[in-house]
Amino acid sequence: MHLIVSCLAVAAVTLASLAAAPTATSPEADAKIEAEMKPYTETLRDAEVKFDMLPIKGGKFLLGSPDSEAGRGEDESPQREVTVAPFWMGKYEVSWDEYEAFMFSLDCSKRKVNKLEPTEADKLADTLVRPTKPYTDMTFGMGRKGYPAISMTHFAARMYCKWLSAKTGHYYRLPTEAEWEYACRAGTTTAYSFGDDPEQLKEYGVYYEDGDRERYEKIGARKPNPWGLYDMHGNVNEWVLDEYIPDRYSKLAGKDAINPLALPTKLYPHVARGGSWEDDPEALRSAARRASNKDWKQQDPQIPQSVWYHTDAKFSGFRIVRPLVEPSEEEKKQIWDAGLEIEGKGGRFTYPCRD
């Protein structure tokens, strides 16, 4: 059953009810203060999916790039000192194994096949919208198991985080632009987390000049950055929460430079970070920014119904974060649902676990 719904219906499940969902996680996820934060693995019982989260200590760093950095863009200026609070970040980009549990409602199907009763967390997740059926194979023949999920819209990535939060009882979201760069740099000030020499990029990143590249690689195929995060340089671009504002950094000072976030107010553009398998080395720098645009949907035959897929963004995926200190329910709602009145307008949504 498919329903045309308003943005209010998309956000119908209360955030308080999501926060109350039971968790299926290792004890290492239960830190209350930064000193207690440890790596942990989250398991989704009925989806047969696991993913790893790494602790990122809070701190200050210089956001953006210096004028002397080769290949830099004007939107990376001026450099600003910003502060970020502690959080966990996905060790890898979200894979198809993880995303298809949401995209194709595999969790619901496996419960039925295995005759498992839904938990309270399952019941909450089942009330949330899921993507409509894609018109084609969204891997575009580049690989599925163990490969990064691609071609989802910014809206779809945020709805995945909302679903994942309901399933686990932990608050997941996209990283902010500042969190992403802070984690990518991992304490470094060079163009890449391994230094300034792009000749070393083959060891750490998947990019266009790496041979006759025609596709992405499996997650974690290259070396991690100093904080243990894989594919921060290349493989696929990664969505962050922020709306793309070219002169955003010029506005960051004082309180605005503490956990900065430019919440989306329109359909385009949003920020993507890290570069991809289609890009040249300069696009994989720690400070490099990319703005989404409507051409990422150019071949979508489902327009205007499809709010879920970017048919022309085979280079774009995402990874998730979980802040140590959860925000208020109102703040969660703002972050998950920002821009829904625009993004969800005329969109088609489905509730496959309830059909």
Could you characterize what this model shows?
The protein is an alpha+beta fold. The chain has a single domain (2-350), classed as paralog of FGE (formylglycine-generating enzyme). Helix content is 21%, strand content 15%. It is built from ten helices and twelve strands. Strands 2-3-6-11 form a four-stranded antiparallel beta sheet. The termini are close together. Mean pLDDT is 86; it is low at 1-23.
The CATH architecture category equals Alpha-Beta Complex
Query: What structural class is derived from the secondary structure elements?
Result: alpha+beta
CATH topology description: paralog of FGE (formylglycine-generating enzyme)
Main beta sheet: 4 strands, antiparallel
Q: How many helices in DSSP terms?
A: 10
Order of secondary-structure elements = EHHEEEEEHHHHHHEEEEEHHE
- Low-pLDDT stretches are 1-23
The fraction of residues assigned to DSSP E strands is 5-15%
Number of domains: 1
The largest beta-sheet arranges its strands as: 2-3-6-11
How many strands appear in the DSSP assignment? 12
